[in-house]
Each structure stands twice: as structure tokens, then as C-alpha cells.
User: Fold these one by one.
Assistant:
Number 1:
Amino acid sequence: MVLGYLISKEFKQMMRNIVLPVIFVLLPISVINVVPRIATQEIKHINFSVVDNDHSPLSERLVHKLAASPNFHLVGTFASYGQASATIDGGQADLIVEIQPDFERQLVVDGTAQVAVATNSVNGMKGSLSSGYVTQILADYSAQLRDEAGLDASNTRLARLNVEPRYLYNTTLDYKLYMVPALMAMILILICAFLPALNIVGEKEKGTIEQINVSPISKSQFVLSKLIPYTVVGLFMLTMAIALAWLIYGYWPSGSVWLIYVMAIAFVLVMSSLGLIVSNYSSTTQQAALLIFFFMMIFMHMSGMLTPIVSMPRWSQTLTLVNPMRYFMEAMRVIYLKPVGFAAVQEQFLRLCIMAAVLWTWAIASYRKTQA
Amino acid sequence: MNDNIVIRVEGLTKQFGNFVAVNHISFDVSQGEIFGFLGANGAGKTTAMRMLCGLSVPTSGHATVAGYDVERQPELVKRNIGYMSQKFALYDDLTVTENLRLFGGIYRMSRRDIKLKTRQLLTELNLTNERNAMVRSLPLGWKQKLAFSLAIFHEPKIVFLDEPTGGVDPITRRQFWEMIYRAADRGITVFVTTHYMDEAEYCDRVSIMVDGHIKALDTPAMLKQMFNAPTMYDVFLALARQATRG
């Protein structure tokens, strides 16, 4: 009853804010529409320079093969490594392929030849990925040459090991499909941690909290009146994000949709409780904003959103065990990519519930109606 | 008179570190009384009032408000009091009606009562046309009258007013005090701090705090006689000059 009055007050204030309702709508649209397109780890345009010291038919075929690949673009063929290197220095090229003077002869006589690949590794990720692509194409080329020469795989030392990967769940290795569920988690953390963090401390700054503290409202009612509106807003934005992902990219969760909502409610309760705790301990909105920003940065980077948790150092892997974002992100990706039921995410769900219970109790305890 | 004492304070003390903000104050306030709580800035008025409202825990001493111990039963105290803080504390992004409905709801008034009293109050305050205006758009004098009305909206036994007329024009101050008298006539005890000495004259009894102590407590007439002063202003000056802090 009292709670009803308080919640209606929160919603009125939220909707009368000039910025908030706009953000609630714009954030899912911009994040789901823009970020998956730009935050991609697929390298599509690799500019390369060639130093062909051999000028043989076989070396030329190799260059053509590289240039024919959709990911590669030939900048030019140069007489010396120095000249080619200038194209990397100048930023026109990302990598140099240098073919040895006796490339064709060695291939014909020995069956092996060397090609040197130099990559601009200022961006380490792009560097290693693009040199990986070159290696793949070279392997392909040598296989092709062996076939033409009629060499049987069984009678050569360079026995060809043909790996044909079959990708499960995300069958086309679509990076966007991997990112979209993670971005939904990001939208929720932005709204459901940030806004509650600014809320109670905002009432402290305005002085309105005095009128609340001097009334017989119970602490849990007051805290609940702050949690529920943000949960509703969070679920609204999540719904928008799910709809947008379907409209724009055609992605629909492979698992069931209600599972997403169950996980989201647990996650939002954790994050908004944390926001309220921060709000209770802060005396200005500036303090609260900086503090919650600190948590958000760490949660996002240690969630496995951009870098896999298994490749983190051991100590940081341990830290991710208390990161709510990690569990929600894992669950979101699983539900989106695999046709699974509750059993597949129950561990994540339980951990989020434990965190929610602890943080909610803490949020109530840290809200003080009476000063010592 | 003793059987209808609604505020009883005995040796109430509040200490922040080495600083004793309120030092062993004792007094009683009876039902329906208008009790003026005077003192220079920093004398400890607000701190004392916050302890009586259950917003701040006393370091030592006892106080009962409306029959409940402020230290052990602050939530029961809060059920029976109204409070108007020094700083305007209504939601300025809610309308007049919405503020009334919210606080009526918080004090568990019935929907019907809220509606009825809202209409009555809006007429009384001449705010009927502004009922759907955001509170932030009201002039200060109206805001203060609204804040007072809200503090007594749920018919508390006692209302605490912390400098309710600061910055308000003389005409509005006059109307404000008429509202205070009407509340007192209904049996609501009024506990009020002020810096305006003409307002001190309107009180039934006045206490004057200096450096955390209560230096004088009596009716305005008796105080003037005691200090051989023509006005409360002179009484206040005589006492406040003794202050060593602030």
C-alpha cells in the first residue's frame, strides 16, 4: 500500500526527467544497431605489399592467389624489401609478403620453399590475425601445387593433414551473434547500476530524504520502492533489445525467451542493489557516479565480454567468480546460441540469486534513517 | 498540566568528537503548546530537534516524544510527529496534489481521507488553481505554507518546525503564524525554532539556547521581566552575547 505510493512517485519522477525516458529508448537502439557492426574482430581489409625476387610463374600465381582473396588487397609489387617496408611505414599496407629469389626452383627441386611474411603488429590482434590468414592461404597454395604435381599424400614427408572444422552452435562464426547477447547485458548494467546509484544520494543532496527519514516508512519498503522501478525499466529495455536484434539481424534466442527474463531479473536485482549501496555510502552524486563507474568498468572487462576468461591470468579468473556480469553474460550467450533449458544456466542463476540476496540485505542495512 | 506532557527531555546530550553540540538540556512541553526554541546559529537547536524527531541518536540523556523513547522507539515517535526541515524538502518535480497524496499514503491515511483533506487544504491555502503545478514553480512563501500543511496533513500529535519562515515576506509570515495558531487550537503541539524575535512573542513559552545549554525558559512576558528588557529581541541579545562559540 505504502509501497504503491512510493513506486508511483519514482515512476513520475523518472518520466518527468528530461533525459531519462529518451535514454531508455535511444540506448538499446544505438547499442544494438551500431556496436555489433563496429566492435568486430573479423579483419576484412588487409592491404599487402609484395617483394617478388623470383619473378617466376609460380611466384606470380602465389601473388594472384593472395590478391584474389576477399580479405586481401594488393597495394603493389616492389623491387626491394626497403621500398615495400615504406608502404607499411606510410600506413598504406598492413603486411609484406617477400618471395625468395629461387622460390620456383626450390619448390620444383626440393619440394619446399620459403616465403617471408612481415606484419605491422602495432595492433597485435590485427597483426596476428592477418598473418594467420596469409599462412592459411600459403598452406592452401602448397596443397594445390602438390595436387598438380600428382604427389600422393602418403609418399611425401610433408603429409597433408587436412583439418575440416565443423563449428557448432554459431555455425557461421558470426561475431555479431556472439556480441549481441553481451551487449544486452551491457545495456542493463548501464541503466540498472548507474541510475540507482544516483538516486538515493540525489535525494540526500536535494534534502528530500529528510522528509522520508522522519516518516514511519520502513527501510525495506523504501529500498524496494527504488529497486522495482529500475527492474521494470531494465526489462523494458531488454525487450527492446531482443526485438531489435531480431528485426535488424534476425537473431532470436535458441533457448527459451522466458529464461532470459528470469536471468535478467536476478541480474538487475544484483546490479541495482549494488547501485543503492553505493548511493547510501556516498554523500554527493559525483562520488556515487565515480564509484559505480569503477565497478562497471571492472565488471565489464572481467566478464568475458571482449576477452575470454580462460585466457586471463589465474588471479583474475578467480576474481571473475564474484562478478555478476560474468554469470549473466555467460547465460545470455548460452541461451542465444544453444537450444537449452534451465539446467544449462541454473548455476549462473543460483549465483546471481545469492549475490542479489546478500546485496539487497546490505542495501537495506546501509540505508540509515537515523544518524549516529 | 503534568499529565498531558508530550515532550519530556532530561539531560539530552549530543557530542560529535570533542564538540558538544547539545549539552545536558532538560525541559517539558505540554500538549497544544507553542514552544519557541531560540538560539543563535550553531547554538545546537537543529541538533536537538533532530534528536527529538528520531533522526539523530542522543549521546546521552533521555527524551520521550508522544510517549515514546526517541532512542529506543524512533519509528513509533515518527508515526506521531510532523517535521518541517530548515531546507525545503518536498519533491519539487511532483505537483502539489501529488506531494500531498504521497505523504498521506506514507502515513497510511485512507484514500478517501487523502482526497477529502487535499480538497480542503487547497481551498484553505488558495492553491486550488495551482494544484497541478510542479512544486518547484511555486513562490517561496507558498512553498513554506505547503510544507507546513504537509507536516500536519496526517494530524500528528506534535509538529517540529525548523526555521519555517526563513526568507519569507512579513505578510506571508503573518499568515503562517495564523496557520500555526489554528493547528495549536486543534491540539497539535508546535515546537518551532526561529530567528525572528517578533515570532518569539507569539509563542506560549520560549527557551533560549546558548552554546549547547538552555540558558532561559519561560513565557515571553516573564523573560522580558526577568531580563528587564522591553522586547524579546533585547532578551535574546543579552543572552546570545554570552556565547563563546559560533
Number 2:
Amino acid sequence: MICLGIEGTAHSIGVGVVKDVKGKCKVLSNLIKTYKPEKGGIHPREAANHHGLHIAALIRDSVQQAAVNISAVDLVSFSQGPGLGPCLRTVATAARALSLSLEKPLIGVNHCVAHLEIGRGTIHECTDPVLLYVSGANTQVIAFAEGKYRVFGETLDVGIGNCLDKFGRTLGLEFPCGPRIEQLSERGTLYLPLPYSIKGMDIAFSGLLTSAEEYVRKGHPVEDVCYSLQETSFAMLTEVTERAMAHTEKQEVLLGGGVASNQRLRIMVETMATARGASFFVPRKELCVDNGAMIAWLGLVMYASGVRMSLDESVINQRFRTDMVEVTWRD
Amino acid sequence: MTKNILYRGAEAEIHLATYMGRTVVQKQRVVKRYRIKELDSWLIASRTKEEAKLMTEARSYGVSVPIIYDVDLAGGIITMEYVAGQRIKDILNTMEHQTRKEICRNIGRNIARLHNHDIIHGDITTSNMILLQDRIYFIDFGLGCKNSELEAKGVDLHVLMEAFESTHSKYSSCFQDVFSGYSERYDGDASLVKLKIEDIVRRGRYR
């Protein structure tokens, strides 16, 4: 079975084509275009316009790169939520149009669950992980329990990527700020204490962000502040992930989301996993960030397990929570 | 002193040991190599200290907690009474309906006793409660603090609500039972705490 998936929950529009090979995911193509605001954060309408502008060409190029005939596509899937309304609507409209014109079934999928399933689908040994999903808007610790993907811990205010971006903007860095903060932090030497805010398995970043900005305002070297910001926030993330692993008694950890590209975070989570005797997995970079292949793969997995979606049910949901998905494809 | 490991948690190892002739539990916070030393040492010492303080205080307000025998800040070790009961997490799903209801109410009453004195447990989950005979022992105050704000009490209860949703999802009324027990004993206005919890839920992503 071959599925074409369209992702567009936030700043990226992606189209991927995947194929099922003995229950594992073979990515045939996975093209992404990212909207970059001239200043400030994402403007939802501008992002949606950006997606609308590129979507047709991306579908064409993605099918071409996959080296399949468009008629060989068996299923069309799209990111139904959570995300920015205008972006979701643009993508849903394109997916519906494609499904109708190809006369192939349509399926809407949960973006957060897709981040987890692409790990299970593309990494052989990864079967039952705790996912640390770290992106701009989302920071969640997700694992399968009692028939659903449940959120064991999450941010109580902003996502970690958003926290890094907000801090980066005060330094005048370009969006996305994470990679630049990572570079700066490598030259940091002095640890400046920052609020370490863990509540059960939940975390909060706003106090830490304010304190970090305060250090900059007081004239501390930017490198030291970046270093301290990363060390503190990533230690919090690693700690809640470990708590979820202990709580669920799972032996695998998977990283996902754009911030999973950060080398320091990878090392910290891997060190934690190794000390617990657990396995550590991280998908290839283009499968960590928002992408169409993960949407295609989850659509395929759901369809194969018997899930069907009518046109009426394909309405988008900006607040589509991870634990709202009935997981029909796992025991 | 002999040691054998009882449980390996996320941040600490629980050993069964002998201390001055009695069987005791030693909670030892372990060094986490993933975080830098400055942060690690500070977290271990401050959490050990805070935990011991809160446990002693909670006990004085009538909440069952293990008796503390010794605290070693630098080593991150608390030596305490061994409570040979069962974790609520392990037995809640299989117990009889009426018993479960009563246990949940009892949990609520105890949380109210803590909150009446501004003790925030910080990690109220069913893994952190032990049932021995008819008493519920609260353990692991490692993320606790003293805080009189409604927000802190709301977040404290919200953690338990999430634990019920993820671990005891078949018994959706559990949290209501906890809250009814809480309302019985809470000295302040419990309806304000309830509103605060609803506020915290809505604040969560995609609610």
C-alpha cells in the first residue's frame, strides 16, 4: 500500500509518500517547505498563504521523486490537528481535493501521534517507546497505556522550541533560534542558576525564560546564559522523560520534534537511557521535524487497521489532543 | 549495614537496610550524569533537605508518612521506617467498587490535611501512596514545597487527576471521590480549589 501524506500544522508544509514493507515504513519521498516570518513569530494567515502557494508543486514533485504514478497512490492523509486553524484548513482542503480527484480514500491524522509512529515505523528495534516530543508549540511526554497514547507530562505554559525562540528574539537572533542558541552555548563556561520547574511529570518554562532574559539585561555573557538555559531546560525535559519511563516501566525512549535536532539534548536523553539500561532512538532529522512522510505513515497504519473517514469527519481540529485518538492498531 | 535494592525510581534508589537493629528503607538520590555537576549536586541536596522537612511536618499534622531516622544531605540519603504495605497504583484497579471509593475519599482527606498547612506534595500519584491496614502512607515528597497559593494546591491536585486519567482510566469517578474527601477536610473554600483545577486544565494545550 502507498500513502501520500500532507503536513501543515504550523510553519512547515510537507508532502511525503510512503510505502508499507512488511509492517515497516519505507519513505519514497518527503519534501518540506518552511515559512519564515520577517520578524516576530508565526503569523497564521501568512503561514497558510505560504502553504497554499507551495502545496500543488510539492504534491507534484513529491510524487515524481517517489517514482510512482499518481494513480498508484492508494490513500491520501493529512494533518487534522492540533495546529493553527488557517494552516490546517489549507492542508485539509488540498487533501480533500486530491482524494476526490484521484478517487482514493481520505484520512485525517493526529500530528503528535504521527511523530511517535514514524519512530516505530522507521526504526527496527523501536516498538514501545516513551516519546519525548519537543517542538516549537509542543512539549509532551507520550506513551502507550490502556489503549491510547497518553500524555504523561507536558509543558504547562510554552513549548521548549517556543521558549528558545522567545529568548533568541531578545538577542536578535533569526527564527528558528534553537540552532544558534546551541552554537552559542558551546562557548559558555559559567553556569548561572535558573528556576528548575517540575510539577509531577509536567514542566514550566516561563520563569526560566524571564530569568534568562534578566541575566542578559544585567550584562552576563550571552554564551553563559545560552549554556545555562540549555542545561537547565534540557535537564528538566530529561528528568520528566525518565519519570515517565519509571512510571510506565518502559525500556525505550524516542526523541521527536524539531528540537530533537539539538545535539546536547540528544546526549542528555541518551545518557539517561543508558544509565537505566534502556534503548535510545531518534529518527533521521527530516523525520523529526514536521513532515509529510510521518502523516502518510500514520494514515497508512490507521487505514490498515480498519479506520475509515468520511468527508464530513475530515473537519480540522485545532485542539486535537493526543489522547483523543482511538489506537486501533496496537494491543 | 547491609543493603538490598527494593525499587529503582527515576531519581532515587530505594534500599532495604538495617539501621540500629531495625529494618529500614533508605532513599538514596543518585547522581545523574546527564546533567552538569553544579545542577546535579544542588538538586540532590536541596530536594533531600526539603523532603525530610516536609515529611516531618506532614506527620505532625496527622498524615501517615514513614518516620525519619537519619538524613545525609551530601550523600542524598534519607533513612526511614519501612512501610510493608501495597502501592495504591497496584491495587486500585482490582479492588471492589465501594472500597475504591472509600480509599479515594481517604486520599482526598489526607491531601486536605497537607494543604491546610500549605504543604504541597509536588508529585501526588498512586505510585506514591502505600496502603497498610487502613492507613494510607504518603511517600516521595521529593518535589514538594511549602506554598499557600491556590495555584500550587490546584496544580498539586491536577497531577493526581492526570495520574488517574493515564493509569486508572477505567475508573473515571476516582478523582471526584478524592475531591469529595478533600472538600470534607479542607479548611479553606474547596470550591475555589475546584475552579482553579478547571482553570489549570483549560490552560493545558489544546483544551
